[in-house]
């Protein structure tokens, strides 16, 4: 077996300095944040943030270690189709900026779940807030463990020590400086992530033989099936599924996810927030596209010798380890560059975890604790203290739960299940709320819970069934010791060890378990929307839950309502709709 390359002294220094800079930003943010005497200052940075840090924070918040390590491997194993998803991001982000953002500013909320209570009632607010917290805890755990798993491929550091150290650093600066610290730290971490991605491309194209050779190798290996527009729900990366997934992902995360929305709420006006989100469209789509399509470059590098099939020579047993191992083996001759790239992977973890910590603690205090206090009794100082306290608590919980994943071999599919099982149903609830005057609290609560349970059953059922789609052909014909069979089967791509005995026959797998996870968000959305419509029909289609001038309605809805009103005869305009419910105090 080849000698394992590890980080040098200069690389360790670079990584430590990058972590110290993140801590320093938290301390500086705490010092120059007006002593954080108001909840508005701590939670929303006083709504005085400039556009640059918000743009970069929105871009890197969802660039997790999985984005840098696992998505290139998905393309490496299954082809380019997955990289189409970021290309449709602009559609979803543009829709989110016009449909949702103005509503949140009009309602004056700190969390988007406050809006749900104004629009529907307390029940749906508590249900979605609870599901969000569970989702974010697992998302943070997987992000933290993903970065540490990458480090294990290039260092001899203990996984346990790495988990505690990285988690503690992130928790410290997030709780100390609030949203302001998170935003400015994201600016620094965005630079590291960018350097890492650019370095990988420069060296990758060189080792892959140049652009033309990379293209020819990918085409010859079946990774570039440009004109395969057949609809196949069981194909891992169906073209239609990937494009639809990109739109739903963008509109859901940038319009109905507290982590991203909280960033734009730190701006002073809805107009600034909308224009900032528009500025984010190009860099967000670009960074996601580059991390996805890098799998094609990686495939050309290992075109004749897959490093996992050649485990006896490389010592690598998981596909998550390919990128960090390639970084160390390729950059070890340049002091410090390996450290910068590994710091970029760490930054992806820190930016995601810090943003989730800040949002989770904010939701806990604003949506769960504050409503139990009588009006005016929970002061700003108490609110800030509680948000900081829960940031520390959630940080500790994430570090503790990370130890439960030390023996887990597959995290990517679990992450997709945790995100998409709630993403589609939640999007349906929010869209119904801002685009229509129909559906009561009970209707949407029933529809959401039912859809979430169904999608969780399908997702976890697929995971437990052991069924996966076989990857495209891989080669070992030019490996130094070519003694590996190319018929080896793989369980879920980017985290499982090779095993020819775990492949589950397709015909023996339940039909819903064979559907690609790329369809889960759309399935959840359509199922929830169907149940909402059905519930409204049962309870009374003509009943409007909110008035025409409700602050909960999107500008898009207001435009069509006003246009419809202009088209009505004069005598109809003068009449009063008897089925409009008078708005409550919370809706005025």
Outline the structure in words:
By secondary structure, this protein is mostly helical. The chain contains 23 helices and no strands. Helix 9 (122-152) packs parallel to helix 20 (441-465). The N and C termini lie far apart (71 Å). 52% of the residues are buried.
Q: Give the proportion of residues in helices.
A: 55-70%
Helix/strand order? HHHHHHHHHHHHHHHHHHHHHHH
Number of beta strands = 0
Q: In one word, what is the shape?
A: globular
Secondary structure: elements and pairs:
Layout lengths: L8 H23 L7 H6 L6 H11 L3 H5 L1 H8 L10 H11 L1 H7 L4 H8 L2 H31 L6 H49 L3 H10 L18 H17 L2 H7 L5 H32 L9 H4 L7 H10 L5 H33 L10 H23 L9 H24 L5 H25 L54 H20 L15 H12 L3 H5 L14
Helix pairs in contact: 1-10, 1-17, 3-10, 3-13, 3-14, 5-14, 6-12, 6-14, 7-14, 8-9, 9-10, 9-17, 9-18, 9-19, 9-20, 10-14, 10-17, 10-18, 11-14, 12-19, 13-17, 16-17, 17-18, 19-20, 19-21, 20-21
